[in-house]
Specification:
Number of helices: 30
Radius of gyration: 33 Å
Largest sheet: 5 strands, parallel
Shape: globular
Number of strands: 19
Distance between the termini: 60 Å
CATH topology of the largest domain: Rossmann fold
Strand content: 5-15%
CATH superfamily of the largest domain: P-loop containing nucleotide triphosphate hydrolases
Helix content: 40-55%
Strand order of the largest sheet: 11-12-13-10-14
CATH class of the largest domain: Alpha Beta
CATH architecture of the largest domain: 3-Layer(aba) Sandwich
Length: 731
């Protein structure tokens, strides 16, 4: 911290204090020139030179007495932290020129102080820090990111009461007693829509300091981990025009500690957000230049946050997976600490489902005095908002299809509202079905070709409204949609397979991401068009990207419109007879892998074999069937495979990974062979052909003794690796 100005015995007319932000290993020269000598008490020129070895901040004090003077700096132009003029009469033609004056205190008489090129100077000075910050943020998690263009928002004139209550809390000057507002409620009640609308309103009014939305994406899980949270918030704070002093301090912190983003969340938040705010409060703000000072940070979807998985010393992911609750509690602890800090000027609006770990945190004694809960329940009259939602959407349908104003009948609209049970997810899904899509018309059965037919189907699917639970009507709606599929059981297998099939990814904190659609089709489609057959009727619930080259290039992926539908298909109790377990889904993927193997190599080109060779299941049991029964059902497909072609392709791929895939397959085909009898035909077919091709290719393969030992023990390790590569034994 720069020392305050001190008056010495000889009358001090001006004391100049500067904090120099110098580039690494930079050279500089500062001079203070007196153009009019003052009775010989001061020299005409007072100069200081410095050569910092490692860059950073250098403090200098220069004092002189003169009525005409100038400051010069070269290079670079520094940031002047404070400048004090004590009762000095500066002539009109005299000038002080610096890159930036953060705080100026002048005496009784005023002259001219000019600021030149501060923006350009700062941009150049902090170029590396900005680049580092951008690299560690997740821009797609900001509420108004282009990737979130279809994120839910409240329809005009809906959820007015709850939005007014939240905005009143944001404006409340006594918010520090309740610095965190937790907006919660059951699935489908519109929490994200409310927070999204609040964020938009606050952004328009200049009240939004920053936002972060935890939301899954098919491409990676960067938006569902804590990794980029602080960097993303810090980036938004430093670019807010109402916080001009914050920018310099955040970027200075990154300059000093470029590895700050490798630290834990508490350290990152302290260094990049709390400490800069403390410095500003201690020294006094430099003003916002007339801009509105922001008041709120919005964080949505905390329940979607998944735990980062860390690697051990060998670079492999640790065997014991970290639960997501660990990272959720860490985030909440950091936010609570900030809310209790008097230098933290923002309130925090946080949205999530009322999951146990999150609710336990907010009901703890440590949090209760600082937080407030807003539960989206009946007190906010959701039925009135849902009625308005239906009216608006149905009027569009009437106009589009030239339906009479009397459609639908009043009792039908009433039933739609009651069936929703306060859940906007039901209303939104129902309207997607009624509106229809270009893809759904030719695939839906039960004469669902018009909005009238689709509405009747929805109403017929509902339970008796009286006494039913909210999820029951939603589940009945989902079941009804699935029943319109030609083969509902096949559809469920496809849905679970899409969720299970992953590809390993070093870019993802969890080490994996969803398989791209072209790979899903390659593995699962036993005939052309099967995807459309299985999923075509689900256009109201699932986005299926077109199978075009353009779509692949743009990285389009499967996208479920509501998490509530994912919850449904993953719950045995809610799905009933339609339920497909994770094990059944993996057996389905394995079966289809062998059934479609003959198509793989002609449809995979070099640039894609990396992804193909990095396929993975959530359980890590690639190729392995869960039971002897499942293996026997797949035996015909196994025997029909061109094993030699598969082995040659894998062995000669650039991404063979020292036999990783070879070892997995060698183990999988033998897994259900009895030790006391000869191997099954499928095992003999695969193993003999694999050994033949690998031996001819110069690979190291298991010895006859090792193969014999594997008949009696599953603990024997196979030894496969290409010529010239060291052995990597794996079971």
């Amino acid at each position: 911290m720069v020392a305050p100005a001190v008056q010495i015995a000889d009358k001090l007319d001006l004391e100049f204090l500067s904090k120099m932000n110098m580039p690494s290993a930079g050279h500089g020269h500062a001079s203070v020139r007196s153009n009019k000598h003052n009775q010989g008490h001061r020299p005409d020129l007072l100069s200081e030179h410095w050569t910092p070895e490692g860059g950073g901040e250098i403090e200098r004090v220069a004092s002189f007495s003169s009525s005409i003077f100038s400051f010069t700096f070269e290079p670079p132009t520094p940031i002047v932290t404070n400048i004090y003029l004590n009762s000095l009469n500066i002539q009109n033609h005299s000038t002080v020129s610096v890159g930036h004056i953060e705080n100026g205190v002048l005496g009784d008489n005023y002259g001219h102080i000019t600021q030149q090129g501060s923006n350009e100077s700062e941009r150049e000075s902090f170029k590396g820090a900005i680049k580092n910050l951008v690299k560690n943020m997740e821009s797609s998690s900001v509420h108004d990111a282009s990737e979130r263009s279809d994120a839910p928002k409240c329809m005009p004139n809906t959820r007015v009461k709850v939005q007014e209550e939240i905005m009143s809390w944001i404006h409340n000057s006594g918010r520090k007693q309740k610095g965190i507002l937790w907006v919660t409620g059951p699935a489908g009640t519109g929490k994200s829509a409310v927070l999204g609308s609040i964020a938009d309103t606050c952004k328009t009014k200049g009240l939004l300091a920053a936002s972060f939305c935890f939301s899954p994406t098919p491409h990676s899980d960067e938006r569902t981990t804590k990794k980029h949270l602080v960097a993303t918030l810090a980036y938004q704070l430093q670019e807010h025009e109402g916080l001009p002093d914050v920018r310099r301090r955040i970027l200075s912190s990154i300059d000093r500690r470029p590895a700050i983003f490798t630290k834990n969340l508490k350290e990152q938040f302290s260094e990049l957000i709390l400490n800069p705010l403390r410095e500003i409060k201690q020294r006094g703000p430099g003003g916002s230049g007339g801009a509105v000072v922001p008041k709120v940070i919005v964080i949505d979807g905390l329940d979607e946050c998944v735990a980062e998985q860390y690697c051990d010393s060998t670079g492999d992911l640790r065997a014991a997976a970290r639960p997501k609750e660990d990272d959720q509690r860490e985030i909440l602890s950091v936010l609570l600490r900030a809310a209790k800090d008097n230098t933290f000027p923002f309130c925090i609006l946080l949205g999530s489902r009322p999951e146990n770990a999150i609710r336990h945190f907010f009901t703890s004694p440590d949090a209760q005095g600082v937080t407030r809960e807003l539960f989206l329940g009946e007190q906010y009259d959701p039925d009135a908002d849902i009625t308005l939602f239906y009216e608006t959407k149905l009027s569009v349908v009437r106009e589009k299809f030239e339906l009479p104003e009397t459609w639908p009948a009043p009792h039908e609209k009433t039933t739609l509202v009651k069936n929703a049970s306060g859940q906007f997810v039901y209303a939104d899904t129902a309207m997607r079905i009624i509106e229809g899509t270009p893809r759904s018309g030719s695939n839906n059965s039960f004469s669902l070709g018009t909005p009238c037919h689709r509405l009747k189907r929805i109403l017929a699917s509902g339970l008796s409204v009286e006494g039913s639970e909210p999820l029951e009507t939603l589940d009945a709606l989902y079941t009804s949609v699935l029943s319109t599929c030609p083969e509902p059981s096949l559809t469920m297998k496809w849905l679970r397979a899409i969720r299970s099939l992953k590809v390993l990814s070093s870019d993802s904190p969890s080490g994996e991401k969803d398989a791209p659609p072209w790979l899903v089709r390659l593995i699962l489609e036993s005939y052309p068009g099967e995807e459309r057959h299985a999923l075509g009727a689900l256009a109201s619930l699932l986005y299926v990207p077109p199978s075009t080259k353009r779509s692949r290039e743009l990285g389009h992926a499967y996208s479920f419109y509501h998490k509530a539908f994912l919850d449904f298909i993953q719950s045995r109790d809610r799905c009933g007879g339609l339920y497909v377990s994770t094990t059944e889904a993996e057996d389905f993927i394995n079966l289809r892998y062998f059934q479609t193997l003959k198509n793989h190599f002609e449809r995979i080109v070099t640039r894609k074999d990396f992804v193909y060779m990095r396929m993975e299941y959530q359980s890590g049991k690639m190729f392995c069937f869960s039971s002897k029964k499942a293996f026997k059902e797949a035996q015909d497909a196994l025997l029909a495979c061109d094993v030699r072609q598969w082995t040659w392709f894998v062995a000669h791929s650039r991404y063979a990974y020292g036999g990783h895939y070879i070892i997995r397959m060698f183990y999988a085909v033998h897994q259900w062979c009895p030790w006391y009898q000869p191997c099954r035909p499928a095992c003999n077919h695969w193993r003999q052909n694999m050994l033949s091709v690998l031996t001819a290719s110069g690979w190291k393969v298991p010895t006859a003794q090792q193969l014999l030992q594997t008949r009696f023990s599953d603990d024997v390790l196979y030894d496969f690796h290409p010529a010239g590569i060291s052995s990597r034994r794996r079971s």
